[in-house]
Design brief:
The complex is a heterodimer of chains A (about 190) and B (about 240). Chain A is mainly β and about 190 residues long. Chain A has one helix and nine strands, in the order αβββββββββ. Chain A has one domain: Protocatechuate 3,4-Dioxygenase, subunit A (Sandwich), CATH 2.60.130. In chain A, about 0% of the residues lie in helices and about 30% in strands. Chain A starts with 15 loop residues before the first helix and ends with a strand. The model of chain A has no long low-confidence stretch (mean pLDDT about 95). Chain B has a single domain, classed as Aromatic compound dioxygenase (Protocatechuate 3,4-Dioxygenase, subunit A), CATH 2.60.130. Helices cover about 5% and strands about 25% of the residues of chain B. The longest helix of chain B is centred in the C-terminal third of the chain and has 5 residues. Chain B is globular and about 60 Å long. The chains are: A mainly beta (about 190), B mainly beta (about 240). Chains A and B meet through α1, β5, β6 and β9 of A and β1, α1, β3, β4 and β9 of B.
């Protein structure tokens, strides 16, 4: 049997009282007990004019420090770190920003028998977006980046848009801007 | 054993969505898309474990009245009480059990509780308009709510949204995530609504329209509407990650 998929529609301007309330938001992707290097990820969403998008929602999905996902379809032999649920969801503030508390994930198997560099999967939803956009957050300077099989699909001059950068003033803090459009437009993936 | 030789890291990729059945990112009649749609082409991503796994979220904190939006306050909300029910399936026809379904909507006068909603229609102290539930073992869900009103917006002159309930569904993988809107049959505003019209394929568009269902309807109490939700399903065969 083959059924037609239900089409996507915009999340609209008024989702926050349902999807990003205090109890429905998830700021902590991996708790303090989780194995791995602590990361405070500061995200911003910007539109084609470079203006902050104050009515977006970001969702994040990631593996634990051993590159294992908290999911039954991840058949790797490691046991998942129960302190790393792997999921985050936050609405953006008036300045287009939101933050997540997590750990740097381990390397996950990728296509062509190559391990992927540490990355988070990120989906952004907003008014004015008829469907979510998918991108990835890599860690600038990670030695595995040059051999990452997904980064290698991205034209060299655009890879930079997928990099989170450490804040030199605040150890453990990383910044990642999502440019929906414009000169610095983020690479989005057709998944 | 290394991660790369371990057969347990095999994955099954998901079926790709056909463009006619989904909205484009840029759809000029919906004005806000013009500065929020990427101008560069998306990059084709072969599915890896990162795409075919996904959050198991919302299992822990569902309250008893979360799927009955008419019982979340001291009194009943104003408006036409309705039952909305259906199944979450994948494109292979398989039910998606134990997945979170979240809904939100305007009240019967077409007003959201959101602080930025400026429509001069009354708020209802007995209606918030947010609900959540998990699908059962057969992928079925059920909400009791009131029929939302149509409401005006500023997209173009005399713009009105057809009555709708927003749905957010997770499914099994991060890439099965779906946010959509459920409409009501026969709404005269369909023809004028760029959000509804953004789906190129007419048949696909109709999948967002619920069906009146006499069997779901409860005598002397509430009309019933059926709304099945179909998420992307996996391809037939696994292959090496």
């Amino acid at each position: 049997m083959s059924l037609g998929p239900t089409p996507s529609q915009t999340v609209g301007p008024f989702f926050s009282f349902a999807l990003t309330t205090e109890s429905a938001s998830v700021r902590c992707i991996a708790g303090p007990q989780a194995e791995g290097e602590r990361v405070l990820l500061m995200c911003r969403v910007l539109d084609g004019d470079g203006a902050p998008v104050p009515d977006a929602m970001i969702e994040i999905w990631q593996a634990d420090a051993n590159g294992k996902y908290n999911h039954p379809d991840d058949g790797q032999s490691e046991t998942v770190d129960s302190a790393c649920a792997g999921f985050g969801r936050m609405g953006t503030a008036d300045d287009g920003s939101c933050q997540f508390e997590t750990i740097k994930p381990g390397r996950v198997p990728g296509p062509d028998k190559v391990l992927q560099a540490p990355h988070l999967s990120l989906a952004v939803f907003a008014r004015g977006m008829l469907k979510q956009l998918y991108t990835r957050v890599y860690f600038s300077g990670d030695p595995a980046n040059p051999e990452d099989p997904v980064l290698s699909l991205v034209p060299g001059d655009r890879r930079e848009t997928l990099m989170a950068h450490p804040d030199p003033a605040r150890p453990g803090t990383w910044r990642f801007d999502v440019h929906l459009q414009g000169e610095h437009e983020t690479v989005f993936f057709d998944v | 054993m290394s991660k790369l030789t371990d057969q347990r890291s095999l994955i099954t990729p998901y079926r790709r969505l056909e463009p006619g059945g989904q909205p484009p990112s840029l759809y000029e009649p919906y004005r806000s898309t013009t500065r929020r749609a990427p101008a560069k082409p998306l990059i084709f991503l072969p599915h890896t474990l990162s795409e075919v796994t996904g959050p198991i979220y919302g299992h822990g904190n569902i309250a008893e009245t979360d799927n009955d939006l008419t019982r979340q306050h001291a009194d009943e909300p104003r408006g036409e009480r309705i039952i909305v029910t259906g199944r979450v399936l994948d494109t292979n026809g398989r039910p998606i059990p134990r997945t979170l379904v979240e809904i939100w909507q305007a009240n019967s006068a077409g007003r959201y509780v959101h602080k930025k909603d400026q429509h001069p229609a009354p708020l209802d102290p007995n209606f918030t308009g947010a609900g959540r539930t998990l699908t059962d073992e057969n992928g079925a869900y059920r909400f009791v709510t009131i029929k939302p009103g149509a409401y005006p917006w500023f997209n173009h002159y005399n713009a009105w949204r057809p009555a709708h309930i927003h749905f957010s569904i997770f499914g099994r993988a991060f890439i099965t995530r779906l946010v959509t809107q459920m409409y009501f049959p026969g709404d005269p505003l369909f023809a004028f609504d760029p959000i509804f019209q953004s789906i190129p394929d007419e048949k696909a568009r109709q999948r967002m329209v619920s069906k009146f269902d006499l069997e779901t309807t409860q005598p002397q109490w509430a009309l019933g509407y059926k709304f099945d939700i179909v998420l992307r399903g996996p391809e037939a065969t696994p292959f090496e990650a």
